[in-house]
Known about the structure:
A: 116 residues; mainly beta; 7-stranded mixed sheet; 4-stranded antiparallel sheet; B: globular
Amino acid sequence: xxxxxxxxxxxxxxxxxxxxxxxxxxxxxxxxxxxxxxxxxxxxxxxxxxxxxxxxxxxxxxxxxxxxxxxxxxxxxxxxxxxxxxxxxxxxxxxxxxxxxxxxxxxxxxxxxxxx
Amino acid sequence: xxxxxxxxxxxxxxxxxxxxxxxxxxxxxxxxxxxxxxxxxxxxxxxxxxxxxxxxxxxxxxxxxxxxxxxxxxxxxxxxxxxxxxxxxxxxxxxxxxxxxxxxxxxxxxxxxxxxx
Lengths: 116, 117
């Protein structure tokens, strides 16, 4: 079992819908990440929160809006998505901020998102 | 540009045989090196990392990796493959010379390992 929990596991939404993805970890990690992954491709970094502050936004379209309510929770709010946004969305965490490059990241099992 | 190469899209090996999944990198300095595995319908799992010290690193599930500085390689190995090792394997590096937010993972494109019974 993974220590990073993502909900829901699957999500189907229309292009006009608003939905949210949720990620939770209780390992005391202070950095949390959102990635987008297409089938059989490496994950693409979207956002990084370090100590509950947004530290990296990889020029992600504004239809994706991250939120970090506390050190254990990370949300990704979705609005007006496009079909090309269909992918596996992965959450990850690491002990401290991204600046400690030797720390491994711990991934959840992802939310498989389909845009109709 | 800094990059990570996994030269084989797919590796096939018979169960019980040794396996090697190759990774080379083009990154300045001495980067931190990682292997992750992704089983079907799962997220990525950390296998092992190299920071410094012994060139042979041992990790989870019987995997090990050998760091070769002169060849800028970090090949993943296992002495005896299991069918359950069939998965997608990613090599990733973090440049050591970068600082702060620039220490993002640089990923290889992945190698699909199939272990045949």
